[in-house]
Structure formats: C-alpha cells, structure tokens
Amino acid sequence: MHINSHFAVGIIFASILNYFYSFNLLDFVFIVLFSFICDFDVLFAKFATNHNHRMLISHSIIPGFLILVLGIIINWPILTFSGIAYSIHIIIDTFDWGTNFLYFQKKQVGLKLLITKDEFDNLPEYLSKYKRAESFFDTKYYSSRISLGIEVILFIIMMAFIIIFAFEFVLISLFYFLGLYFHLSRHFILKKLEI
C-alpha cells in the first residue's frame, strides 16, 4: 500500500482511540506518524537485499513489537498504541508485495496479491522489460482495481472516522493529499518514461 493509505489507516486507528482517550494534538499525531514512518526506510534501500526496502528490519514486525512492549513497560499508552499502529502497517504490507515479516529468515512473506509466483520467482526478468525497474511495481499497483478500490475506501473511512471520533483533528487529514500527490506524480513520471 502507498504511504497515503497507511496514513489513512493511522487516522482511522487514532480516531477510534480518541473516542475513548481524548488525545491532545501531539498524542494523536504521534500515533498517526507511527502508522507510516517505516516507509521512510526507502531512503536506506541501498543497504537492503535486492535494494528492496521491505527487506530491512524496519519493515519487519520487530520494531512495532519492541515499541509496543516499551510502551507497556514504561506505562505510556501512546507509545503502546504507536507500536500497534506500526505493526498494523507491517501486517498490511504482507498483503500486496509481502515483507520480511520476522526479519531473521531474510525472506519476503505474505499473500503478495499484486505479484504472481512466476513474477516473484523471476523478478529480474520482469524488471528488465522496463526502462526503470520501479515501473513494474507501479504498473502492477495502478492496474489493480482492488488496490485502487482499497485506497478510495480507506480515504472515505478515514474522513468519516475523523469527523465522527476526532473532529478537533480534522485538518490533519489534509496531509493525506501530500502522500497522494507524491505517489501520483511519481506514477505519471514513470508512465511518461516508459513511453
């Protein structure tokens, strides 16, 4: 899933929790931040197996679990909820392309709904058909009605939940469009390069 969708999931999760805990702005933002922060590991992809940021430890369940446990130990519910938000991100990522869930097995696991077994097993061959390797993933993502449908549904749920459960933070939802802009602009640039 794209960063804007993970952001939407974070807003949904934090909004539900806000109904029960009445967060202040920093607490709410902290939880939302942890719902997508691990995607910034893309900056360190050059250190990952096959330059795939989802093979880094930051895209395993370990950091989310450690954050959750630390939150419990120091009795800071916001940190505990942030660990859950981080873990939700990792679990969701197992559905589209898979992720190095337990890290130490050094294997991408999950349903991998956006890639066939043949494509996964012979990835270099498929990537070589494109001028830019990332165009393969971009094309697969944007040609999937399921992926696009999930993005639309998450946006609608995000807006409904923040209005119903956390209206005081509704302006935070505007940051969704930064993530959307990033991915759409990248999509159209890649599409243009492949022509």
How do the helices and strands line up, and which of them pair or pack?
Layout: H1 3-21, H2 25-34, H3 61-73, H4 77-96, H5 117-121, H6 123-127, H7 134-142, H8 145-165, H9 176-193
Helix pairs in contact: 1-2, 1-4, 1-8, 1-9, 2-4, 3-4
What's a quick, concise take on this entry?
The chain is 62% helix and 0% strand. The protein is mainly α.
Given helix and strand content, the structural type is mainly alpha
> What's the oligomerization state?
single chain
The N- to C-terminal Cα distance equals: 25 Å
Unreliable spans are: none
* H/E series: HHHHHHHHH
Number of strands: 0
Tell me the fraction of residues in β-strands, as a range. under 5%
Mean pLDDT: 95
**Helix content, binned percent:** 55-70%
Number of helices: 9
How many domains? The number is 1
Largest sheet: none
Gyration radius from CA atoms, angstroms: 17 Å
Shape: globular
